[in-house]
Amino acid sequence: MAAGKGLIWESSGTAKDDFVTTPSSACMSSSRILVADDDVAVLESVTWLLKENGYDVVPANGGAQCLEALERRSPDLLLLDILMPDTDGYTLLERIKGEERWRDLPVLMLSAQPPEDASVRSLGLGASDFIRKPYRPKELLARVQAQLRMGSVLRSTRQALVRTEEAPGAGPAGRRQSSQTGGHPARGHG
């Protein structure tokens, strides 16, 4: 296991295997990830790992800096520590999920707490996933990629829904008419 202040990541024994994999698509590698953790060693190691794999990373040392960064520009993914002195991750997660502009933001919780309680509470508050510290680099990268893919699918679906709702004839009457005619606009018979 590698260490800074405490255990940061679990090693598989091969340095190259532990740190560098390639993001699965160009879309994923240009993704912006906000990492919030009060442990500087963890913050630096996660930031380094993600940057080495092509992500645009914004580090935040604690909850207050996390909120400031969110206000400046919404990321594609938030990695959020649970135990922080200024604002704990649970409180921050509730606040983020309670705001319309951030409700769909994927949040991956990081914690050294036992996963039995921490993961259940995190997921119940709206987190997308949970990973226990010390983290395994390959697993962290895989979970990051999965959450970015899901976030992208959700954004695309929402945009398509908005376009559909804004299209002419897409009001309640237009939808009723379309469903009665097999998805085609009504045609006159004559």
Jot down its keywords.
globular; two-stranded antiparallel ribbon; 190 residues; disordered N terminus; alpha/beta; five-stranded parallel beta sheet
Summarize the model shown.
This protein has 190 residues and is α/β, with parallel strands linked by helices. The protein is built from 8 helices and 7 strands; from the N terminus they run E-E-H-H-E-H-E-H-E-H-E-H-E-H-H.
Rounded to the nearest angstrom, the distance between the terminal CA atoms is 78 Å
Mean pLDDT: 82
The percent range for strand residues is 15-25%
Largest sheet: 5 strands, parallel
DSSP strand count: 7
What structural class should be given to the helix and strand makeup? alpha/beta
Order of helices and strands: EEHHEHEHEHEHEHH
The 3D shape can be described as globular
- Rg from C-alpha positions? 21 Å
Give the low-pLDDT segments.
Answer: 1-7, 14-27
Spatial sequence of strands, sheet with the most strands? 4-3-5-6-7
Helix % is: 40-55%
SS field, number of helical segments = 8
Describe the protein's architecture and organization.
The protein is α/β, with parallel strands linked by helices and 190 residues long. The chain contains eight helices and seven strands, in the order E-E-H-H-E-H-E-H-E-H-E-H-E-H-H. The chain has helices at 15-19, 26-29, 40-52, 63-72, 89-98, 115-124, 137-166, 172-180; strands at residues 2-3, 7-9, 32-36, 56-60, 77-81, 107-111, 129-132. The longest helix is centred in the last third of the chain and has 30 residues, at 137-166. The protein is globular, with a radius of gyration of 21 Å. The protein starts with a strand and ends in a 10-residue tail after the last helix.
